[in-house]
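Escalated from tier 1: LHQ holo job.
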Amino acid sequence: MSYQQVTVEQDGAVATVRMNNPARLNALSTVMSGELIDALGQLNGDESIRAIILTGEGRGFCAGADLSALEEPYRRGDRPKLSTFLQSDTGYNRLIPLLAEAPKPVIAAINGVAAGAGLSVALACDIRIAGEDAPFSLAFVKIGLIPDSGACYFLPRAVGMARALELAITGDRIDAATALQMGLVNRVVPADRVLAESHDLARKLADLPTAAIALTKRILKDASGLSLAQTLELEATVQDEAAATDDHIEGVMAFLEKRTPTFTGR
Ligand code: LHQ
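Tier 2 regenerated the structure:
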């Protein structure tokens, strides 16, 4: 996979996808979002890849939408409909599900600032590991917009409605320690350890039953709007899918035979 603003590296069953426009703190241009969509689509369909890391080149993770693209039309007095972009082939509404609904774990290795849609992208990943100097800002309100790219879905679920609302309507910058304390990120590590810790976790996850991880991701999201009775019913149905995998049989047999299981992801 060869791109202008994205790089992809493969190390065994782990793929690292890097947003690569460091001069703009990896702001999401339409080129970059289109390339992310292409790369993630391919990696999601590649059974040999069993964990994905998303990170940024340079001192930023992602500074949100590339606002420089708006300069020309706004100076001209144009008022483009942002929904047309959001719902386009290279728009964030295509990108976000490729992270959140990837049939394998996705780790955001947050190497630096995550702002606006850059924070939404991190929130769409399954696990967030942040450098201790990484700032976070739901910057949308500062430019008169509402949170997009799934932030309205993921943020209240991660930090609770009261904190989500405060972050969204102030756009205030918070540091990594605060982000950890409120549940916005899973771990904070020294800045120079972000990628190494993300790799260690990705490798561990890649050795686990990938199909069960995919089903777990799906059911936790699907169950969030259901009643207890509906959730129990859904669990029973999805458990049948999990039990039909080779890795379920392998896990049980390895336990009974007192050996380490070898999972294939199927
Ligand atoms: C940037 C950006 C950027 C371009 C830094 N774009 N160049 C929006 C519109 C359209 C469609 C639908 O969805 C959306 C959703 C959104 O994402 S809205 C939110 C957009 N993002 C922002 O409003 C954040 C803007 N950036 C900032 O507030 C700051 O740059 C942060 C807090 C991220 C980092 O601050 P610093 O560490 O002080 O860095 P800096 O501001 O000096 O930025 C470094 C360079 O990166 C600078 O370029 P320059 O040529 O002056 O060195 C910035 O202009 C550029 N850059 N963000 N989003």
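The chain has a mean pLDDT of 98.
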